[in-house]
User: What shape does this take?
Amino acid sequence: MNQPFFSIITCTYNSWDFINKNLWSIETQTCRDFEHIFIDGYSSDSTLDVLHAYKKHKNYVHIYQSNPQWISNAMNEWISMATWKYIIHLHSDDSFFNRHSLQKCKEFLLKRPDLDRIYGKIVMIEKDSTIIGQFPNQSVFQINKWQNWKKYLLKYVNFIPHQATCIRKDVFSRFGNFDESLSYAMDYDLWLRLRLKTNFSFIDTKVSKFMIRSWAQSTWKENQKANKKVLLKVLKKHLNIFEYPIFLVVNYLIWLKMKKYIR
Assistant: This one.
């Protein structure tokens, strides 16, 4: 299609072990109004072989390579290459929840052209696809009539999973891309920058699956100390001295519920 509704951006690096789940979830979507852009960090395994086999006879699939840097750089790298209206970042270990995920998002966005972005729910899975939870699952993060209050609540907890977010491409040109100095929480930093400048809404559907991997940036125990330093940098940008203690209390309570997912 010349002007696809969605541009799906997938970052890959040595992803052959799980990339097929991503590809299958996209190939089986009932909504075909999309392009699929891959940014590969010069994988040394068979990832590119898998991607080129997938691309065969598909003019909506585009494969590029870029020197591996922070994930925020990869997420930014080809935003300008995305062709049309809404961008979805679906990494190589993520996949759509079912074959109707894109269609549900499209129908919602067509009814609400005033929105700059929408977010749904992610289902957290193990490598063998065992479901271990979903997020967000608290009603306070889902009720759209509390929209102004949710913009305030966002300062204290990141309840927007980027794997289940559709965002208008022009939002990036108006307000900037992901901060490439951040190795972690780059999505939260962007949400905080956008919270009072854009209109967003929750869509009550499971959009994507998020694989919990022991070596992933966000869940690997050895990354936790470095991740906390990066998060502190983000918080200093957006929270004042009175708001920071509230953030700590709220996220400690969330951590008590989520720590079983930290490897």
Observations:
- The chain has one domain: 6-261.
- Strands lie at 6-12, 34-40, 61-65, 86-89, 94-96, 117-125, 131-135, 165-168, 200-211.
